[in-house]
Design brief:
By secondary structure, the chain is α/β, with parallel strands linked by helices. It has ten helices and 17 strands. Strands 1, 10, 11, 12, 13, 14, 15, 16 and 17 form a nine-stranded mixed beta sheet that branches. Strands 2-3-4-5-6-7-8-9 form an eight-stranded parallel beta barrel, surrounded by four helices. Strand 6, helix 8 and strand 7 form a beta-alpha-beta unit. Helix 4 runs parallel beside helix 5 and helix 8 packs across helix 9.
């Protein structure tokens, strides 16, 4: 169609001859605006960096969405963000092994020129984890490990507690475990309680009412808040980070039904295939893989059983032609031209992928095939710099975090 014809033209004008990950800036901006319209003013917005793994991309989302809150999932991203966006407010999105936390502190202070964490301080204007970072803790045992690290480094740590609000992927699931964590934090001057994270993407995938499932998740969340209020009393901070949401469910949260103060969202801004959900109808696909056609065969042939190719084409006209692409085997679905699919017998290839199509598909070598990623967090990392497409032109290349 006209959209992918324009993409093809821009790729050819730039003499690109390899697979490339494209982001449509106009669609990206529209998705950001759709998110802002729902989230603000009732919630803060926290950018999920694993779904948008590029510093320029994260900076663009941060500026347009008017937020400096980020959720990170590994120590390498944390170091990169601390270096490139030193004003960032960071919440870790999963509990890291304590050795990963130790690596982060060692590398961060080495970058600052300090010979040891305890000998700081960091350079003026640098990312300060004692004030800008919340580590996510899921068990009393993990907190004990982080406590040992905090004292060995003489480093203050802000602690956010992961809650199981129905996803059942770990996190605190009862008040007894929560109190054990809060007691250890309260006794240690190097540790401070900063809030909760309760992730609930399951609510849109279970049978029945997603709104009812979210209400159930928020009831569990509210109970943990009450426990913290009872434990701390008047000393409970009034600016806790109460994080929830996620791309599948963020639009279900309202001021009336949610106890969260902020929502963490990332994938829906580029909308991979896995996020083609009723809850995300306001968002448009903004990311595509473009890959050149290397070979075109008029007949599909399967090694060792040559006769089955014509039989498959007779049964299904969309098996008539075979196209071999530059690269392949990505987590992605063919999008354009329509009617392309992976051959179930020939198998997958990361070098030259076979895609079948009918006689009506007009592709020839050096033409382009477009695919939609099923997710962004792993797929985006496979292509080097992201090509930015804006109103018919490739305008920039945004390097990935690596």
């Amino acid at each position: 169609n006209a959209y992918f014809a324009a993409l093809t033209s821009s790729l050819k004008q730039n003499n690109i001859g390899r697979p490339v990950l494209l982001i449509d800036k106009s669609r990206l901006n529209a998705n950001i605006d759709a998110l802002k319209a729902h989230v603000y003013p009732d919630f803060h917005y926290r950018i999920v960096a694993k779904s948008l793994p590029s510093i320029p991309l994260l900076k663009h989302v941060s500026e347009r969405a008017e937020t400096s809150r980020f959720m990170l999932f590994n120590e390498q991203f944390l170091l990169a963000l601390g270096r490139e966006i030193p004003h960032a407010d960071v919440l870790m999105g999963k509990p890291l092994p304590v050795s990963a936390a130790h690596y982060f502190y060692r590398e961060l202070y080495a970058q600052s020129g300090a010979t040891g964490v305890e000998q700081g301080p960091l350079n003026a204007g640098a990312f300060n984890p004692a004030e800008q970072l919340q580590w996510l803790i899921d068990t009393p045992e993990r907190l004990a490990q982080y406590q040992v690290l905090a004292h060995s480094l003489k480093q203050k740590m802000r602690i956010n507690i992961e809650l199981d609000v129905g996803l059942h992927r770990g996190g605190v699931a009862d008040d007894q475990s929560l109190v054990a964590i809060l007691e250890r934090i309260d006794r240690d001057p190097l540790l401070s309680f900063r809030g909760f994270m309760g992730y609930e993407p399951h609510v849109v995938k279970l049978p029945g009412s997603a709104e009812k499932h979210l209400t159930d998740a928020m009831a569990i969340y509210q109970q943990r808040i009450r426990t913290a209020e009872s434990f701390f009393g008047a000393s409970l901070p009034n600016d806790l980070t109460l994080n929830s949401g996620g791309s599948p469910s963020y639009r279900l949260h309202t001021k009336a039904n949610s106890v969260a103060t902020e929502l963490a969202v990332g994938s829906c801004l580029v909308k991979p295939v896995d996020f083609d959900l009723a809850s995300l109808e306001a968002h448009s696909p903004a990311s595509f893989i473009a890959t050149p056609v290397i070979k075109q065969l008029d007949t599909t042939m399967i090694p060792g059983i040559d006769s089955i190719g014509p039989l498959m084409a007779w049964w299904n006209p969309n098996r008539q032609q075979a196209f071999f692409t530059y690269g392949g085997n990505w987590k992605a679905h063919p999008e354009s031209p329509k009617g392309l699919s992976v051959n179930p017998l020939y198998g997958r290839s990361s070098n030259q992928e076979m895609l079948n199509g009918s006689k009506s598909v007009p592709l020839k070598p050096d033409d382009w095939i477009f695919l939609r990623p099923t997710q962004s967090e792993a797929v985006f990392l496979q292509f080097g710099a992201i090509a930015l497409y804006d109103h018919g032109e490739l305008t920039d290349y945004w390097p990935i975090i690596g």
